[in-house]
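Review session, final week

We close the course with one last complete record, chosen because it touches almost every idea we covered. It is ABC transporter ATP-binding protein, a protein from Parashewanella spongiae with 300 residues. Go through it on your own first, then we will talk.
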Amino acid sequence: MSLITCNDLTKLYGSKTALNKVSFEIQPGAPIALVGPNGAGKTTLFNLLCGFLKPSNGSVRILDQRPGERSLIGNLAALPQDSLLDPSLSISAQLSFFAQLQGLSKAESLKEADRVLDLVDLRDTAKEKPTALSHGMGKRVAIAQTFIGSPKLILLDEPTAGIDPANAKKIRSIVSEQQENTNFLISSHNLDELEKLCDQVLYLENGSLQQSISLKNQTEKNDFITLTMEQTQTANLVNVIKLMNGIKHVEHSQQDTFIIEYCVNEEPNLEIRLFEMFSQNKLQYKSILRGKRLEDTLFS
Ligand SMILES: Nc1ncnc2c1ncn2[C@@H]1O[C@H](COP(=O)(O)OP(=O)(O)OP(=O)(O)O)[C@@H](O)[C@H]1O
């Protein structure tokens, strides 16, 4: 079963092309990231996947169904960017209401509300009204809502936007814990966060799919190192690194940052060789990271 298949998916708003012939297929597995600048078409894509919008052209299948099909109820869940909780109902009442919409009895729905609140570590808030929660806690409740009925696929549109670091971290760990039980497609502007959570990245720009990158292959091969130096010490460093054993390519990606591509079989201990070279040349580094950062992958 494919999770999502889009073929030449196109969406026009009047004369504005929000999505232009987007084609991709994604399979079940680790969370998938959807990245792109403001106005790239991410929310439009989410809305098409949920069946809130109809394509102008092309086709989309989600869990092998047409978006909006009844059979997707309980199998597909989405957290819209601006999701709101009902301020007049307790957290438990609104979660159990959504569980009843999926066909659960009143008693079952209350248990389901407790279960999903446990998953986001907010069982204590069951009797509270949303106004008693912080913005970050409210977002976690909204994420709990997507877990109702244990769907096969959950779409999260900017789940950590505007959230304080502690709650954002909590949300990342919730996604990480739940990825064994469900599949996630996550849109975010936080590339570091996506890099930690996702194996595959879809990059949209101006309504077109520009790149589909597998991060897993990169880290499994371990054939990149991202090196950040003290800014004053970068002159001629590219040439020095290029002379080292096993180096395939060195890119001076930003003022103080170098992306080093190397052959692991030829030089399995490149970090140690780099430390030796820094010591010989009296150079100071800020950080050495295994892998190529998503930011550099997308924008190099
Ligand atoms: N209802 C609409 N009517 C007209 N144009 C729209 C409508 N919704 C979105 N657009 C336009 O379509 C393009 C894609 O918008 P969309 O909201 O999908 O982008 P996005 O990637 O989600 O942006 P952001 O990161 O800012 O949320 C933008 O140029 C936007 O102005």
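Two points worth writing down before the exam:
Residues 222-299 form a domain with the Alpha-Beta Plaits fold (CATH 3.30.70.100).
The longest strand covers residues 16-26.
Good luck, everyone.
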